[in-house]
Amino acid sequence: MDRALFESEAFRFLNLIFGHIQNQSVEIQPHWFIDHLCYRANTEDEYQSLCVKFLDFSDLLIETQVSGRMISTFKLHKPIVFNQFEIPLVELPAPKKHKITETGFEHIEIVCDVVLLDLAKKYSHLNLDLGGLKKEINPELEIVFGRENLKFHNQSLEDVIRHELQHK
């Protein structure tokens, strides 16, 4: 995958997810930001191949094991610019064992300055995944639209990585 294809897929995905956001009347405050896109791999071999291909247009910040599988985070040489957002990172998780995933973009994560439980109450009528609220580091609230999902958290992934690297 080259940068042009990556960017084209990202714009298609972002248009879909923002269509869901608009249709479900989810409010994104102007001072919130999208800190990363998540791109899924279907197989371990595809994950390894994508890790190499992403290095053509980004730098690896970290590859770490989370819940029994590797997750790589890349900082794009040039952020994805979509509407008013500049998205600097892409997260690439290896697939979980015994879980089928489709290759491609899956979710965006927005850094917000509100209590996630308050957002959960506000959007309780939507399909929410509350499992991420239990995370010790950077809890998250997910709105599940289907294949394209939206997650909120209070700290950027880059800040979490910086903290993690400082305390290793």
Mind explaining what this structure looks like?
The protein has 168 residues and is α+β, with helices and mostly antiparallel strands. The chain has a single domain, classed as 2,3-Dihydroxybiphenyl 1,2-Dioxygenase, domain 1 (Roll). The protein has helices at residues 3-23, 44-54, 116-122, 157-166; strands at 33-40, 58-66, 69-82, 85-93, 104-111, 128-129, 140-144, 149-153. Strands 2-3-4-1-5-8-7-6 form an eight-stranded mixed beta sheet, sandwiched between helices. The chain is globular and about 40 Å long. The N and C termini lie far apart (32 Å). The mean pLDDT is 95.
What is this structure, in a nutshell?
The chain is an alpha+beta fold.
Number of domains: 1
Strand content: 35-45%
The total of helices stands at: 4
Uncertain runs: none
Give me the CATH fold name: 2,3-Dihydroxybiphenyl 1,2-Dioxygenase, domain 1
* Mean pLDDT reading: 95
SSE class: alpha+beta
Q: Write the CATH architecture name.
A: Roll
Beta strands, count? 8
CATH superfamily: 2,3-Dihydroxybiphenyl 1,2-Dioxygenase, domain 1
Helix content: 25-40%
Gross morphology is: globular
Give descriptors for this structure:
single chain; 168 residues; alpha+beta; 2,3-Dihydroxybiphenyl 1,2-Dioxygenase, domain 1; eight-stranded mixed β-sheet; 4 helices; 29% helix; 36% strand; globular
